[in-house]
Design brief:
By secondary structure, the protein is of the alpha/beta class. The protein is built from nine helices and eight strands.
Length: about 230
């Protein structure tokens, strides 16, 4: 199975994609982690990517694609790619099965990202309000010191939202037309969002695509917060 996760920055797509991959027993691939690892290792591609990341800009397609081609297994959950329609077209050769779109409003995006901490070692993501580490600034999993991402400063966050709306949002219609899109309400706790996603996965595995609305004119399931 080949699953993509897309959505605005701060929507939780990385955390949710990792959790889904673990539940399904297939590899998790993060385009963002690959880029950050290449930058940390100071590779040639990493050096090219670093200039764009520091300015809150998207890394050029060719650089990201070159990084991904060496890392995509036969089955996977991929987060952080594609980020625009051109990338989606280039990615069609791998024929993704489903695309989960996590939706979140801009004020929630800023609030989440400004309080985000990340483990540079095991990549676990924390939020100081909703999902803090047990010991301040220390990863619960591996004990490494937590850091903030270079692109998580408030001004950079706003710029990233603008970039998303202009370049990444058109992906929604692209995958809707191809009957691959499953829309998920990204608000609420990690557990609430994960429950919505697993409801959709259960529907895919248990009742088939048509039951999820993926073959309907709407071409997508909108799972909302429980009330």
């Amino acid at each position: 199975m080949k699953i993509l996760f897309i959505g605005p920055p701060g929507s939780g797509k990385g955390t949710q994609a990792r959790m889904v991959a673990e539940k399904l027993g297939i590899p998790f691939i993060s385009a963002g982690d690959i880029i950050r690892d290449e930058i940390a290792m100071m590779t040639e591609l990493g050096g090219k990517a670093e200039r764009y990341v520091k300015n809150g800009e998207l890394v050029p397609d060719k650089v990201v694609i070159d990084m991904l081609l060496a890392n995509l297994p036969q089955s996977f959950v991929l987060e952080g790619f594609p980020r625009n329609v051109l990338q989606a077209i280039l990615l069609e050769k791998i024929k993704p099965d489903y695309v989960f779109y996590l939706y979140l409003e801009s004020p929630d995006i800023i609030q989440r990202i400004s309080k985000r901490k990340v483990c540079p070692n095991c990549k676990t993501v924390y939020n100081l309000s909703s999902n803090p580490p047990k010991t301040p600034d220390i990863c619960d999993i591996c004990g490494s010191k937590l850091t903030s991402r270079v692109d998580d400063a408030e001004e950079t966050i706003k710029k990233r939202i603008d970039v998303y709306e202009n370049e990444t949002y058109p992906l929604i219609n692209y995958y809707r037309k191809r009957e691959k899109l499953i829309r998920i309400d990204g608000s609420g706790s990690i557990e609430e969002v994960h429950d919505r996603i697993m409801q959709a996965v259960k529907g895919i595995k248990g009742t088939g695509r048509k039951e999820l609305g993926l073959n309907s004119g709407f071409a997508g399931l909108w799972l909302k917060k429980k009330v």
